[in-house]
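Researcher: I'd like a structural prediction for the single chain below. Treat it as a standalone chain; there are no partners to consider.
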Amino acid sequence: MEKTVLITGAAKGIGAQIVRDFVCEGYNVLLNYNHSEKEAIALKEELLSSGANIEIYKADISIREQVDAMIEYCMMRFHGIDVLVNNAGICEYKLFTDITIDDMHHMINTSIIGCFNVIQSALKKVMINQKSGTIINISSIWGMVGASCEVNYSTAKAAIIGMSKALAKELAPSHIRVNVVAPGAIDTDMMNGNLSKEEIASFAEEIPLGRIGRVEEVSSLVTFLASEKASYITGQVISPNGGLVM
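Model: Treating it as a single chain, here is the predicted structure.
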C-alpha cells in the first residue's frame, strides 16, 4: 500500500535530502516550502523525471489557516498522511544582548508555533481518526545542550524536544509515534551561511569523528524512524552528531 509523507521546510538542505530518501522508499511526498520556491520547483522536476509521486505546496506554517489548507490539499491529492516530518526552521547567530523581541517572536512563530500548527492540524484532520501515524520533529544538538550566541535558536529547539516527549505519551494510545532527530554540525547552506570555512574547520576538530556530518546521515535516520523497523521507538531524541555530545 502506498504511503504519504508531508515534509515541511523541504526545498533545501536536510529537508531536500529527506524528500529524496522518502521518494526512494516509494512514498507519495508533499513538499512544503515558504520562501524557497525556485529550489522547490527544481527538486520537484528532478524527482518527477525519476517517476516520483511528488507535489509542492507553499505555506507559511506560522499561519494556521495556511497549514489547514495544506493538510486538506494533501488529503485531497494523496488521500492520507502516514508520516509527518517537521523540518522547517530558522537559525540566528547573535549575542543574547543583541536579540530583539522581534527576533524572538520570529523564532518562536516559525520553529515552535509552526511545528504546533502542523502537528495539531494533521492530528485533528487525519491521524487521530485513522489511529496511526508517525511524527518526526527535527530539533538540534543545541536544543539538548545549548549554544553560545544561539540562545533563541537553542530555546526553540529545546521546546520542540519537550513538545515531542509529551506528545509521544499522549498519542501512544492512538498508535501514533513521535520522535526527535537532533542533528549536530551538518554541511548545509545554514551552516555555511553563518560560519566561515576556518570556523567550520576548527569546529570539526572538536568532533570525535573528526568531520562535519552529511545531510544523508540525517535523512537516513528519519526514514528509519518512519519505518516498521522502528515500530517500538517513540518519545526518543536521537542525535547524529559525530560524538560531540553523548
